[in-house]
Amino acid sequence: MLISIRVAFQYMHKDMMKKIIISMIHPRLECTAVV
Fold first, then answer.
1. Residue range of the domain that includes 20
2. Backbone phi, then psi, for 4, in 5-degree steps?
3. Regarding predicted confidence, which is higher, 4 or 32?
4. 4 Rama class: left (phi>0) / alpha (psi -120 to 50) / beta
5. Residue 31 above 80 pLDDT?
6. Are 9 and 17 in contact (CB under 8 A)?
7. Could you tell me the superkingdom of the organism this chain comes from (predicted)?
8. Which residues contact residue 9 at a Cβ distance below 8 angstroms, ignoring those fewer than 6 apart?
9. DSSP for 1-35?
10. What are the pLDDT digits (tens) for 3-30?
11. Which 8-state DSSP code applies to residue 13?
12. Into how many domains does the chain fold?
């Protein structure tokens, strides 16, 4: 499982990674900002 994820990450574009990271972190930042 982990190996397939690592391989997928290597093939993904950096822009895609940035979008995924932002989409994952952004909601958390909003929640912490409200609190």
1. 2-34
2. -65, -35
3. 4
4. alpha
5. no
6. yes
7. Eukaryota
8. 17
9. -HHHHHHHHHHS-HHHHHHHHHHHHHHHHHHHHH-
10. 887 877 777 677 787 888 888 888 777 7
11. -
12. 1
> Which residues touch 3 (CB under 8 Å, ≥6 apart)?
none
**Distance between CA atoms of 29 and 11, rounded to whole angstroms?**
28
Find where tokens 């912490």 sit.
Answer: 32
Sequence length of the chain is 35
Token pair in block for residue 7: 């391989």
Residue type, 11: Y
pTM higher than the cut 0.85: no
pLDDT at 35: 61
What would the two tokens of residue 28 be? 């958390």
Give the whole-angstrom CA distance, residue 6 versus residue 31.
29
